Amino acid sequence: MVVGVDIGGELIRLAKEQAGPNETYLVLSAEKLASIGTGRFDAAFCVLALQNIKNLSMAVGEMARVLKRGGRAVVVLNHPAFRVPAASSWAYDDRANIQYRRVDGYMSELTQRVDMTQGQNDPAKKQYTYSYHHPIQVYFKAFAKSGLCVTRLEEWVSHKTSDKGPRKEAEDKARKEIPLFMALELRKL
Q1: 24 within domain boundaries
Q2: Is residue 22 part of a domain?
Q3: Residue 133's Cα: distance from chain center in Å?
Q4: Nearest CA to 129 among 118, 119, 114?
Q5: What pTM was computed for the model?
Q6: Which of 2, 124, 136, 153 has the fewest CB atoms found within 10 Å of its own CB?
Q7: What pLDDT score does 62 carry?
Q8: How far apart are CA 36 and CA 40, in angstroms?
Q9: Residue 45: beta bridge partners?
Q10: Structural domain range at position 42
């Protein structure tokens, strides 16, 4: 049995249209999975969503609650050390011919409003979401508090290559050295 959860009703509607016989999709906040029984699942996956959930501890706690003892969770995040909303960016050093990741803040938690309708000029049609930055230690403390142990960590780089141009070599090298995603495997103790 697969149960998919998202706070976005439109995403759940689309998932239901493609659902198989053993799939259920629910509009729920990851912070409150009250309608899902305790210890029900062998595995949980949270892909590129945890950094967009306001109450990290509640969401991690709920993920742990619905897992069976020994259950596995996989979490994929924008890399907290290199992708800090409004506090990190790519930069280029012309003299050294190096592209690098500039990080202006990391330890401070922050909330960043994200425009989901860039290019839309009508204020009535603008839509926003939020991203919440936490340093890696905050994630690990939330996992530990909820009885989840990190058993594996991977940092993922981009396999994209730049178009021809004067910065191609530097851009391609930076993409291979600076991970923008982080994947974690966790086990419920």
Answers
A1: no
A2: no
A3: 10
A4: 114
A5: 0.91
A6: 124
A7: 98
A8: 8
A9: 74
A10: 31-188
- Pick the closest to residue 26 from 4, 8, 43 (CA basis): 4
Complete DSSP assignment for the chain: -EEEEES-HHHHHHHHHH--TTEEEEE--TT--TTS-TT-EEEEEEES-GGG-S-HHHHHHHHHHHEEEEEEEEEEEE-TTT--TTTEEEEEETTTTEEEEEES-SSS-EEEEEESSTT---GGG--EEEEEE--HHHHHHHHHHTTEEEEEEEEEPP---PPSSTTHHHHHHHHHHS--EEEEEEEE-
Going by C-beta distance under 8 Å and a sequence separation of 6 or more, which residues neighbour residue 122?
none
The CATH number of whichever domain residue 171 belongs to comes to: 3.40.50.150
Q: What is the DSSP string of 57-68?
A: HHHHHHHHHHEE
Which pair of tokens denotes residue 74?
């996989």
Number of domains in the chain: 1
Query: Which segments in the chain show pLDDT lower than 50?
Result: none
Q: What's the CA gap between 122 and 111, in Å, rounded?
A: 24
- The confidence score (pLDDT) of residue 13 equals 95
Q: For residue 2, what pLDDT is reported?
A: 93
In a domain, 14, yes or no: no
